[in-house]
Amino acid sequence: MLKGDLKIWNKEVYGNLYTTKNNILSEIESLDSLDSDGGSVGSGRLERMELMSQLREVDRKIDSLICQKVRANWFKYRDSCTKFYHSSLRWRRLRNEVKGVEVGGQWCEESCTVRVEAKKVFENSSKQQEMLG
Fold first, then answer.
1. Staple partner for 40: which of 35, 69, 95, 125, CB 3.0–4.6 Å?
2. What digits encode the pLDDT tens for the residues 116-131?
3. Model confidence, pTM
4. What is the 3-state secondary structure (H, E, C) of 40-106?
């Protein structure tokens, strides 16, 4: 009975974290498309930074939720090598994997190209943050 009440309370307070994350990601994507079209101004970049902060917070909450589920399952079965634990880790790893990137309008899945493009993105974002901060 307590578990059911906690689930209801969790939905009321936190909502669905995965839906929230998808909404934040779509907002970031729309701001990025505005920025690439040259329509973004300083406030758009500030809004993007705020959204990135919210995204990090939601990811932290999702990680915490997964850890709590794993811990609860461990208490229930007293074994850290359960099917649930490993499926949670596998699901998280697959969800975070970058399978490919779009380069010059072409989708590329070669690992060396993905690494180079990811490095460029992080270098550009760090340069932009240095300029802002």
1. 35
2. 888 888 888 888 877 7
3. 0.51
4. CCHHHHHHHHHHHHHHHHHHHHHHHHHHHHHHHHHHHHCCCCCHHHHHHHHHHHHHHCCCCEEECCE
